[in-house]
């Protein structure tokens, strides 16, 4: 039975692959988003649309204050979290969980001989964003609530050697950040989609496997969320890890989503900050 399902699945899917992994439309699961064996229904409320690692925050979609992170720390007092990293100034704050993810990435860079990283900006609260906007104006800053820095999911990374566009740190991140769940949020070739000029320093955490798909398909978050909504479900293989990613619309009354019953896989749920949630399941090893 399992073998036959596997055959049907492979036969029914369009597949794109590169050296690092594969991305397939997951037609079987997308069809009805039905509960399969090993899955249970969980009720999602509309407020969950605005929380999680995949929320879109831009000129159109502000962050909800309730979704702002509650683990913000002043980095100067927590340098053990980010060993070897320079800080532009002592006031920079960051979500502690983001600092840990950033440190894992820069540790891997160090193993490649790239280690002149700086943090030039981290978390900004609403008052700080209001001040920045008043000071710099609409062409250079976003109003309070509309910046990813308010969501605690982004940071501006610099190099003490050169401007990021030319620095080894910038080049390393462009090639490798996806492996650690980060994406370059405002690429040079996507200014028409993001509405933001090229920022080789601004990285956003979305988590794996999303960073892989975005890198592989050359999509920014706006495009990626549209793609998930259209495909409804995709299946991603990275090395030995297999994931399904499913988008669910969430109307005012909420929605039921399928998640692994205990013991049959890990999952993460995130809103898109528009009109739905995304359930990412890491399938148990075959
Ligand atoms: Zn930034």
Low-pLDDT segments:
1-18
Helix content: 25-40%
The DSSP helix count reads: 8
**Secondary-structure element string:** HEEHEEEEHEHEHEHEHHEEEEE
CATH architectural name of the largest domain: 2-Layer Sandwich
| Number of domain modules | 2
Ligand inventory reads: zinc ion
Largest sheet: 6 strands, antiparallel
Rounded mean pLDDT score: 89
**Which class best fits the helix and strand makeup?**
alpha+beta
Morphology call: globular
How many angstroms separate the termini? 15 Å
Overall number of strands: 15
Strand content: 25-35%
What Rg is obtained from the alpha carbons, in whole angstroms?
A: 20 Å
The CATH topology of the largest domain, please?
Answer: Muramoyl-pentapeptide Carboxypeptidase, domain 2
Strand order of the largest sheet: 1-2-11-12-15-14
Which class of the largest domain in CATH terms?
A: Alpha Beta
Structure write-up:
By secondary structure, the protein is an alpha+beta fold. It has 2 domains: 13-49 and 217-282, Phosphorylase Kinase, domain 1; 65-205, Muramoyl-pentapeptide Carboxypeptidase, domain 2. It has 8 helices and 15 strands. The longest helix is centred in the middle third of the chain and has 16 residues, at 96-111. The chain is globular, with a radius of gyration of 20 Å. Mean pLDDT is 89; it is low at 1-18. Zinc ion is lined by residues 121, 149, 154, 156, 202.
The gist of it:
With 286 residues, this protein is an alpha+beta fold. Helices cover 25% and strands 26% of the residues. Mean pLDDT is 89; it is low at 1-18.
């Amino acid at each position: 039975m399992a073998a036959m399902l596997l055959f049907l699945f492979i036969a029914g899917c369009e597949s794109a692959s590169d050296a690092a992994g594969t991305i397939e439309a997951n037609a079987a699961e997308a069809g009805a988003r039905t509960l399969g064996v090993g899955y249970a229904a969980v009720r999602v409320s509309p407020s969950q649309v605005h929380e999680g690692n995949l929320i879109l925050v831009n000129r159109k979609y502000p962050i909800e204050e309730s979704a702002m992170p509650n683990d913000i720390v002043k980095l100067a007092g927590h340098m053990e979290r980010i060993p070897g990293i320079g800080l532009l100034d002592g006031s920079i704050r960051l979500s502690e969980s983001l600092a840990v993810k950033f440190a894992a990435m820069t540790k891997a860079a160090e193993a490649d001989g790239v280690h002149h990283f700086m943090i030039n900006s981290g978390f900004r609260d609403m008052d700080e964003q209001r001040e920045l906007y008043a000071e710099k104006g609409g062409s250079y800053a976003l109003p309070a609530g509309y910046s990813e820095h308010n969501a605690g999911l982004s940071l501006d990374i610099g190099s003490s050697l050169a401007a990021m566009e030319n620095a080894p740190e910038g080049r390393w991140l462009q090639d490798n950040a996806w492996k650690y769940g980060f994406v370059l949020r405002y690429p040079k070739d996507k200014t028409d989609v993001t509405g933001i000029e090229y920022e080789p320093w601004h990285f956003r955490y979305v988590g794996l496997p999303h960073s892989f798909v975005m890198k592989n398909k050359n999509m920014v978050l706006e495009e990626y969320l549209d793609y998930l909504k259209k495909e409804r479900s995709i299946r991603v293989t990275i090395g030995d890890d297999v994931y399904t990613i499913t988008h669910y619309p969430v109307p005012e009354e909420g929605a039921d989503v399928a998640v692994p019953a205990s013991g049959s896989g890990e999952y993460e749920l995130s809103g898109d900050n528009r009109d739905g949630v995304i359930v990412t399941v890491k399938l148990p090893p075959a």
